[in-house]
Amino acid sequence: MKKRYWLLLCGLMLFGISKLGDSPSNSNVATPSPSYPYNVTPTSQPKALDAEKSFETPIPKNVAPEPSLSNSRSNETAATKFISGNRIALRDAPNAKAGIKDRLDAGKKVSLLGQEGQWSRIRDSLTQKEGWIASRFLSDKLPQKERIAKPAETTVKSPPVISPSIIIQRIIAESLASYPGSCACPYSTDRGGRRCGNRSAYSKPGGYAPICFAGDVTKSMIEAYQ
Question: Do 83 and 130 belong together in one domain?
């Protein structure tokens, strides 16, 4: 009995050894290569980085800046105004206590350069002086009395060419004619026939500032007169 048991056990061991020898090795099994449709090789596929770049939104270059909304007024033409009062002070600043540069009478033609509150910055069309006056003394129209006194100004045409010396004489004459008194310049004489000297408006600050000498006439005055 024991002899048969050992023979059976030995036969089972030999059978198991023979089966292990017949099993194929995993190392010899060939791995199937991936197949690509239409004979496309893996190297022809786009890279992931290129695919991401294809969806990037292009950034515009050389974009012109938006135009500024601020409107410059440097090229605007100054509006023409007329003085509507007498002995109106032309001051250095928009302040009733500011220094007086000149005094202007009714009918004086000026250019409006700007406004600040109740004050207006103007330029005298004759003397080219700039300063501030109260806005209430400016008018859009020439006073009626000035229209009657000078009816021919709108029709008389100046000669096409005038020499600077004649323009200087005319500027001085018009400045003296606009002064209401008799002592406009130091060389003027008062009603009693006496020389004005230091009593003249030209010599006193804070009042009228008439043009008395050729040296007082600037190049800008001559150009504005032409």
Answer: yes
